[in-house]
Amino acid sequence: MKVLIAGANGQIGKHLVKFIQDEDNLDAKAMIRKQEQAAYFEDLGAEVAVVDLEDDVDAIAKAAEGVDAVVFTAGSGPHTGKDKTIMIDLDGAVKTIEAAKQANVKRYVMISSFETSREAIQSAPEGFAPYVIAKHYADEWLTSTDLDYTIIHPGGLTNDPGKNQVELAEKVERGQVPREDIARVIVASLNNDSTIGKRFQVITGNTDVEDAVKSI
């Protein structure tokens, strides 16, 4: 299975490309914004597509040609302002969904926010609310399609070394989780068709990632 990773140069994305390249049955295509970012991924043996999420759907669809799955791990980051949140976390996500449809790619994995309900929007701190809103509507857009989607809702993301152990369910108590372990959850989700049509929250726990994902 060839997997296009939107946001490959991000912190989850870099872990994900490495883990995918370690899998016998998976192969990564890293979607990056700048050619100078390519060397890291090429050294891992991954294919590279230089496409900006602010480009049009056709450009993203061209990058998606010939792949079997799309994973959206991109994010505007906490310091870019509301405009970039709309452009990347909402519009960028929607464009990759539409690009997947255009390129006849059925499998799609979305990295969302821990809680994206209407209640979460209403209760979010003012500075965080635009991000929750963007993720809410991106998730809604995805679930309205006929794509074979999985939506992963991670807890508070850290750069701690991964434990390869998580707690994973439709609802879990709020907590933290290393980005490295979210990348492992993505790989396990791609390898398990039981995650199709599912959305679940993930925090650090005591169950091996593969076993946790199989139980969903």
From TrEMBL:
InterPro entries cross-referenced by the UniProt entry: NAD(P)-bd_dom, NAD(P)-bd_dom_sf
Residue ranges of every copy of the NAD(P)-binding domain listed in the record: 7-192
Pfam families on file: NAD_binding_10
UniProt cross-references to Gene3D superfamilies, sorted A to Z: NAD(P)-binding Rossmann-like Domain
Protein name: NAD(P)H-binding
Organism from which the protein derives: Gracilibacillus orientalis
